Amino acid sequence: MQASGSPFAGVPKPLVPLAGRPLCRHAAETLAGAGDTLRLAVVPPGQAGEAVQAALEGLDYRCVTNPQPGRGLLSSFQAAAAALPAGLDGAVFALADMPLVSLATHRALREAATQAAAAQCVYGGVSAPPLWLPAHLFPALLALPDADNGPRALLRGPDVVRVPRPVAELLDVDTPQALAQAEARLPHPHSAR
Length: 193
Prior knowledge:
The chain is an alpha/beta fold. The chain has a single domain (13-185), classed as Spore Coat Polysaccharide Biosynthesis Protein SpsA, Chain A. It has helices spanning 23-32, 46-55, 73-83, 103-112, 138-143, 176-185, and strands at 17-18, 21-22, 40-43, 62-65, 90-93, 119-123, 126-134, 161-165. The strands form 3 sheets. A 4-stranded mixed β-sheet has the order 5-7-6-8, sandwiched between helices. The chain has a two-stranded antiparallel sheet with strand order 1-2. The chain has a two-stranded parallel sheet with strand order 3-4. α2 links the parallel β3 (40-43) and β4. The chain is globular and about 40 Å long. Mean pLDDT is 90; it is low at 1-5. InterPro entries: MobA-like_NTP_Trfase (IPR025877), Nucleotide-diphossugar_trans (IPR029044).
């Protein structure tokens, strides 16, 4: 959540308007199109979290509160992993502030995912979400120390499947300039995402 004086004038980042809808709605709609029957959204506590939940209405997400989002990105990944039911093969972890990630990317990630190995999207040499973690890595994810770079420690080594994706999808909306870039690069509403 962005605090007052943030780059988005105090508006929590997931709720910043992008093409007339909250930023989080763009990524959530694309992810929902991948067909997963269980979808979790990690939200901040309080009114901001309630507003994010409202922004996702109708997309069949179960919301989980990250009680300490100030601990960094990894804390959100951990909140999601802790809330997942037993018996899953694994899970996809995606970010609300990456609105250009396509449905094709989510499908390619799932095709590459296995129960044995993690899968990581790579955009022109840059590794970034979404990513797939098999369930056997959830305990290791929960044990990682606080970090603002997600579960990178689990995504090293030869057993991680690298999934090449278009560089044009790699845009993390952290500034008003990045928000303007996202607005300019969003696909036309009638084109396939």
